[in-house]
Amino acid sequence: MKGTICVLAEQWRGRISDVTYEALALGRELADELGVPLTAILTGCNAKDLAGKLGMADSVLYVDHPLLAEPLPQTCAEALAQVMEDRRPRALLVSLTNVSLSVSTFLSVRMGVAAINFCKDIKVLDGRLQSRCVMYGGKIEATVEAHCEPAILCLWPGSRPADLGHSDRSPSVEVTTVALQPSRVRLKRYVDPEAGDVDLTRQDVLVAVGRGIQDRGNLPLAEELAKALGGAVCGSRPVIDQGWLPISRQVGKSGVTVKPKLYVALGISGAPEHIEGMKDAGLIVAVNSDPRAPIFNVAHYGIVGDVVETLPGLTAAIESRKAASQHA
Amino acid sequence: MHILVLLKMVPDVVEDLEIASDGKALDLDYLRMILSESDDHALEQALLLKERHGAKLTVLALDAPEVDDALFTALAKGVDRVLKIVGADTPLSTRQAARIISQAIPRIPGLIPADLILTGVQAIDDLDGLIAPVVAHELDLPFVGIVTGITLDDTGKTALAIREFPGGVRGEFEVTLPAVLGIQAAEKPPRYVPVAKVRTAMKSQSIDCAPVPMLADGGWPVVQVVEMKRNEPSGHVQLLEGDPEAVSEQLCGILAGQGIF
Amino acid sequence: MSTCSVTLENLAQSPEGREIFTCLQCGVCAGTCPYGEVMDYPPRRMIATMRAGMVEKVFTSDSLLACVACYACMAKCPRGIHLTEILLPLMKEQTLAHLPELPGELQRALQNTLRYGNPMGEPSRKRAAWVKTAGVPIRIFAEDRRPADVLWFVECYTSYYPRGQDNSRATARLFHRLGIDFAILGNEEKCAGECGRLTWEPGLFETLMDYNMAVFQKYQFNRVVTSCPHAHNAFKNRYPALGFGWGLEHVTPFLAKYLERLKPLLARKLPRTVTYHDSCCLGRQNEFYEAPRQLLRAIPGVKLVEMVHSRVNAICCGGGGGGMWLDTYFKAKGYERLSERRVREAAATGAEVLAVSCPYEVSRFEDALKVLGYDKRMIVRDVTELLAEAMEE
């Protein structure tokens, strides 16, 4: 495995996460360019079957242990350190998600190597791996290198389309185990969110509100637009934190990931945690008073303006267009 | 019960960020610093636990521009003791800061034993690592991250930490104390403290200073920033211009063309 | 009058404090108060509980959140008690200390004002960005330290909000045409802090006062002219305790003093029916009722009509005393927005233009027009905007 590119295959509640396929797609590119194999590392307990889905990799190293059944970053990092100590890959790609957060830091201190956070993309330059990192809430881009092996590279979701990471191939699977201390952290149970009135993931149109809506009292404006477009209202984290919308309406890292036909982002700045939840929408329209807002990096169409001022006119125009086409 | 809270100052992104002349870092002259948002939540969570269980609260931070404001504000909110570590070379990456903090904690009298060490789960400038896992590793303590709620059991030996997962799912984790928790959000938004109270704290209370400890290990590999630049909108967005009516009409046309309605 | 030193504890020791206890319990204050019917403790009851030694009841209710510092009670009090100036801010400070949780929007406004010098949380370095769009030269003291006759204290909404910037551009053009020798503080300017003081936060106000006085003392000028009536009040009533001794005017009465020079410049006819809303700070507090009307009458074509409640009886837009950041809270409580109440009155006059002279009013009344559906038949304009429009060739 020395010098290979590895991808930590994130699995949670019996499913391989989409971000794993994104990382595999990127890992494949890097491995091919460097002329080295791509290995997926999968941890879990009795989860060997999942290894078959990782065909984009040349091989899968499956680490099995009862303590790896649940997402415990310290334990996972210890297991990864043990299997990588002798194998010494070139780099390990980890995803920045609520499941895998902190694994990279634990792994890097455990192995005495460097980790690079916030990677949006990685490329090969003169045989070196170079990361393009998006930091400071999306406002700064840094080009970063780590000169150690393995380098732990943490990817924001969305580095590559997940589709490109799937493959029908059956990879070779090596099964191994590790010795792990009992954990002082134990998962008692998961609490699923209450079934909301609306399943955001099933909507064709979503009207999302962020801090730029300014006031809970302005929500009806967004609701009217959603109604005119035949969709539902959702929100970014700050709006949920304020209690303006229930948690079932949260889009982003701590909420749901959606792929509607149309996503209208109203007063949402576009921090990576939110973008992650909606970047694959078919058509993204953003309204924001700040022309530099990172949301304009993912939007297809943008309106620079005050959300509260723009909304009523927009809704009215849509309604009259609909009325006109009905009469036609 | 004793709770230690670790605070960090980060660049305030409300003001435009400027790049230094070497093109590899932020221009520090142009920077204002603000308390990292999730650290503010960690402090709030600690204050809530203090209100519930009568814990003693200590706050530790590395010296940085405007850190005194944050520390006096913490005192005004009810923290019992605040300290800052002075004398470190700046600027520090998160990994370097975490190294100093984790080695300072056992060597500054009164910081441990602590039943809980709380800090924000992630900050906007954590390019090369996170604080909480480094502290947990160095002090050999259990860790739970992305925490949005904490309940202590009656014996004080364990805590139930609520951790956030995708899709609004929450995981309840039981963790043996003492432990390090990376806070995502406190159970309530960070409280307001009147400026007058902070000004009173500035006059009547003080920040303890501790020197940077002699660091015990040979250092860790660093990451190298080759280039840093402002993330301008990539330009592929098509901005609709004109007065609100014209813009609405344009957008309508686009949506109709895409079969949205 | 120095009102900095009156506290709840030392009320009995100062004349302003003692006068509070001369209250007749007549209830005119509660009757005049625009939110009187939703307040548990209007001024009359507040003073009654103080006399009964039970004033904590006031602090532990949220009654004072509904006070928009409109001066109506103070203007009507037969004893002349300085309610809005002295008693209410003291009570509000205590309520803040006792509230389990401050409404989020208000908290952010206060935190932003402390940190960035404006309640919107906009970068302090962008405060003077509008200057480039003014179309006339505007001197900034930090860049050109020569003395000026007038220090124009622009203030927050007039610097950062697009509609406020319209006002500033109009003001700059008027100053320029009138040959006023003026300069602004630019990015060095921070909120004068009046709303912090009247709202809940004397500590915030003192911090801003210290800062602003230090900046003033760097430069040489004869008088301060400000676009914001709240800033005008702060400079008039509180800043003298820290040495503020310069001449002081709000833009509207200042321009009225130049009426003879201004009239021939107002060449363009604006055939509009205009109704003027007396702002609380300029109107009731300082009795500047005539100056804005003189200016409006000087515009050719303008026909002035009055609302039912005008001059000392004007109904507040609801933005003072923190009201600017409590709309969410008021909505949750089911209170009617005062700006909507006022706009209905304005619409009833049949006027096409609602003229104002306080920056808060523009956004509040424009919102109300939209909500009530009157926005096609009435627009909101600051007096300076109308003057500048009439001045255009």
Layout of secondary structure:
The complex is a heterotrimer of chains A (328), B (261) and C (393).
Chain A: E1 5-9, E2 11-12, E3 15-16, H1 18-34, E4 38-44, E5 59-64, H2 73-87, E6 91-95, H3 103-111, E7 115-125, E8 128-135, E9 140-146, E10 151-155, E11 172-176, E12 185-191, E13 205-209, H4 219-229, E14 232-235, H5 237-241, E15 262-266, H6 272-275, E16 283-288, E17 301-304, H7 307-327
Parallel strand pairs in A: 1-4, 1-6, 4-5, 5-11, 6-10, 7-10, 13-14, 13-15, 15-16, 16-17
Antiparallel strand pairs in A: 2-3, 7-8, 8-9
Chain B: E1 2-7, E2 9-11, E3 33-35, H1 37-53, E4 56-62, H2 67-77, E5 81-86, H3 94-104, E6 116-120, H4 131-138, E7 143-152, E8 158-164, E9 170-176, E10 179-183, H5 195-204, E11 208-211, E12 223-230, E13 238-239, H6 244-257
Parallel strand pairs in B: 1-4, 1-6, 4-5, 5-11, 6-10, 7-10
Antiparallel strand pairs in B: 2-3, 7-8, 8-9
Helix pairs in contact in B: 2-5, 3-4
Chain C: H1 15-20, H2 28-32, H3 43-51, H4 56-59, H5 72-76, H6 83-98, H7 104-116, E1 139-140, E2 148-153, H8 157-160, H9 162-177, E3 182-184, H10 194-199, H11 202-216, E4 221-226, H12 229-237, E5 247-250, H13 251-257, H14 259-262, E6 273-276, H15 281-285, H16 290-298, E7 303-305, H17 327-333, H18 338-348, E8 353-356, H19 359-372, E9 379-382, H20 383-391
